[in-house]
Each structure stands twice: as structure tokens, then as C-alpha cells.
Amino acid sequence: EVQLVESGGGLVQAGGSLRLSCAASGFTLENSTIGWFRQAPGKEREGVSCISSSDGSTYYTDSVKGRFTISSDNAKKTVYLQMNSLKPEDTAVYYCAADLGKYGGTYYYAHRLLDLWYDDWGQGTQVTVSS
């Protein structure tokens, strides 16, 4: 059974940092892509970042480039999202999700942060950034 468990959320002041963790089990991390998504109240879920555990390729949405860093520790089966220089607009529930490699093609590789590629999701962790 695929399981994804997020941790590390909390309340932080603007300009601060948090590190989210996504502990994965029930599948081979090396053959997957793990994505981080977020959903703020009243807004649609958006892709934040993802990492291909097979080759280490990383992707970021424009609003977090230069501030967030995604990494993977395959031995620990954990993916991290280091979030620096946090802004109030980063406030959201953050979810990790697994793309288990069922998809491919030009459109897939050009749009890795679309949630339709991700089959399994964690329960989410709240991140609140105060101004």
C-alpha cells in the first residue's frame, strides 16, 4: 500500500524558514517522481515543486524559484522541501504526492507540476506565514 506522510508544517513569520518532509512507503522511490502541492483557502491546488528520484531532476513553480529547494534521500525514502524567505502568500496546506511512472510523452515532460500525473497523496500539513 502506497503511503505518504507529510510533516514539518507550522507557523512562521515572514522571512523565516521551514522544512517539510514527505515519508514514502509501499513503492520504490527511485522509480517515481514526488511532487509538493499546496492549496490555500478559496484557491485551487497548485504544483509547487517536484523531483524525479531516478535522475534527480527538479522542477519549481515560478513563485518559489530561488526560495524553495526540493531534495530526496532515497535511503530514508523521504523527500524534503526546504522553504526559505517565506511570504504570507505561501500560507496553505502542503501535500506531497507520488507519480509512479505511468505517464510519459512531450506534454508530460513539459508539465510535471500538473496534479493529474499524481496518483497517491498524503494528508497534508499546514504552513502559515504571518506578516
Compute the number of helices: 1
What is the C-alpha radius of gyration, as a whole number of Å?
14 Å
Derived from helix and strand composition plus strand pairing, the structural class reads mainly beta
Number of strands: 11
Unreliable runs, pLDDT <50, ≥5 residues? none
Portion of residues in helices? under 10%
Shape call: globular
Strand-residue proportion: over 45%
Chain-averaged pLDDT? 96
CA(first)-CA(last) distance: 40 Å
The largest sheet is: 7 strands, mixed
Query: Could you state the order of secondary-structure elements as H and E?
Result: EEEEEEEEEHEE
Quickly list its features.
4-stranded antiparallel β-sheet, 1 helix, single chain, 131 residues, globular, mainly beta
Task: Describe the protein.
The N and C termini lie far apart (40 Å). The mean pLDDT is 96. With 131 residues, this protein is mainly β. The strands form two sheets. Strands 2, 4, 5, 6, 9, 10 and 11 form a seven-stranded mixed beta sheet that branches. Strands 1-3-8-7 form a four-stranded antiparallel beta sheet, with no helix packed on it. A hairpin with a 5-residue loop joins strand 5 and strand 6 (58-60). Helices cover 4% and strands 47% of the residues.
